[in-house]
Amino acid sequence: MKLINKTTIGWLVVAIAGFLVLQLAVTTGIISAYYEITLVTILINIILAVGLNLIIGFSGQFSLGHAGFMAIGAYTAGIITKYFPTYTGLFLGILAGVILTSIVALIVGIPTLRLKGDYLAIATLGVAEIIRIVIVNMQSVTNGAAGLSGIPYLSKWPLIYVFTVLTILLVANYTQSSPGRATIAIREDEIAAESMGVNTTKYKTIAFILGAATAAIGGALHASYFSVIRPGDFTFNKSVDVLIIVVFGGIGSITGSVVAAILLGFLNVFLQPFGALRMIIYALALIGIMIFKPSGLLGNKEFTVSGLLRLFNRKSAQGEG
Amino acid sequence: MLTVNNLAVHYGVIEAIREVSFEVKEGEIVSLIGANGAGKSTILKAVSGLIRPSQGEIVYEGTPITTATPKQIVEKGISQVPEGRHIFSGMTVLENLEMGAFLRKDKNEVEKDLQLVFDRFPILKERKNQDAATLSGGEQQMVAMGRALMSRPRLLLLDEPSMGLAPILIKEIFHIIEEINRTGTTVLLIEQNAKMALKIANRGYVLETGNVVQTGTGEELLESDIIQKAYLGG
């Protein structure tokens, strides 16, 4: 996996510019404490959506279990940071969450990834519910249905931002790599991929585990920012929320997931004053997108620096001519 | 080069083929012909490891590959053009061809083979950055064949390359198959188009409902009663 290519540089430039703009907005007070919550929600949603997009968009496996993996990450990091309320504790917590989630995803993935389409969706949905119910019943460790509170507030927004960028870099690079290409080939045509010598189970499982691991990161950051987590935060609805972002942005487009997470985050804020009408308008926006652009906002296109340069060159060439 | 002994494949309880035996010698074109449902594609899938036979043995160059994975089989030098082409429609022509060399580590040689494929199918070079889905049926067949060649196979398995193509294109495809064979690749061809398949074949096998019912050289089979009656309307 090559770490420096045009896509990576493009993302880095955007990431640093984005950070500077946000930093400026926070210090000048444009982003108030209230809007900071929106910012963090958007960032965590980006992490979740990009990870789910790897599973759904790139490997073509329909998973509805994202909330379950997020829950494992959130609870693992939450419990560990309660004992070690330091940054070391947080990083240990994230690491432990990622490892635990990967193990669960591996155990779940090997049998279920033989299923296709709806069957896989139902199996992963079931797994997420099992995870939630296990958390509810592990009273002594997780405090059951009441949830964990008093988790040390360690993940400030810049830290979450860094993790968001790292997650995007990881997924973007994976999809550009040779295993990533194999993963896309499986989505395009599983039989053909297999006859090219691609070990389909292996690459589907890798994509599934990577996606689940990023969900754990998202969950851990969520726990550490909001200080309170309850099993009710990680229901089927949460998985669907993430799925909506992926579909809205474009299945198979990382840029799309990022854009959709931002847009839907803003939409939520602007619709806040409308109360109950909010969900209706939100739903209408989604239906509208599905009617007028069924492939999502960006289809499967990606933002790249080279693409941007090409666009500029074309524009300037037109200007001269 | 490839010997298949008493092969049987079951889909659940349904027996798709039984006691099928045939042989492909190095440098040959061998055609397996038969009507729909005769079990032709099943044989090919068993050889390429996509399905596991319930009985019998497949031996490639002296080593049994009956239980080998598709990956191991590709690595041994057997490459398949699946029925109905199965190209990666969301990828460009070039990406499709590169997928064919997925298991290869010798990047320089892959580059050479890519040029060879472009020499053989000049139209693909013109369209290399186009999405494979936008190609015509004949061009897609060329992508599928070019992709299979990118693994540098010694034995090429072709499943119904004439399917859904205009007669003039079928002629061209068969001409290309002969060309590929002439440059040293052994070919196992599966076809419903018996006349074309037997014309270019050194030897052929006729399948009927899961059984080999006749065998001989391409010419012998073309002349034989069973073929004349069943396929050529004689």
TrEMBL record, chain A:
Species assigned in the record: Desemzia incerta
The UniProt keyword set, sorted, is: Cell membrane, Membrane, Transmembrane, Transmembrane helix
Q: What is this protein called?
A: Amino acid/amide ABC transporter membrane protein 2, HAAT family
Q: Which GO terms describe its cellular component?
A: plasma membrane
- UniProt GO molecular function: branched-chain amino acid transmembrane transporter activity
Q: Where is the signal peptide?
A: none
Coiled coil location:
none
Q: Which residues cross the membrane?
A: 9-31, 37-56, 63-84, 90-112, 119-138, 158-175, 205-223, 243-267, 279-299
Q: Which Pfam families match?
A: BPD_transp_2
Its placement in the membrane is given as: Multi-pass membrane protein
Automatic annotation (TrEMBL), chain B:
Name any Gene Ontology BP term.
Answer: L-amino acid transport
Which InterPro entries does the record cross-reference, listed alphabetically?
AAA+_ATPase, ABC_branched_ATPase_LivF/BraG, ABC_transporter-like_ATP-bd, ABC_transporter-like_CS, BCAA_Transport_ATP-bd_LivF, P-loop_NTPase
Q: Name one GO molecular function term.
A: branched-chain amino acid transmembrane transporter activity
Q: Which residues form the ABC transporter domain?
A: 2-234
Q: Which UniProt key words apply to this protein?
A: Amino-acid transport, ATP-binding, Nucleotide-binding, Transport
Q: Kindly name one Pfam family recorded for this protein.
A: ABC_tran
Highest taxon of the source?
Answer: Bacteria
Similarity comment: Belongs to the ABC transporter superfamily.
Q: What is this protein called?
A: Branched-chain amino acid transport system ATP-binding protein
The species this protein belongs to is: Desemzia incerta
**Highest classification ranks of the organism:** Bacteria, Bacillati, Bacillota, Bacilli, Lactobacillales
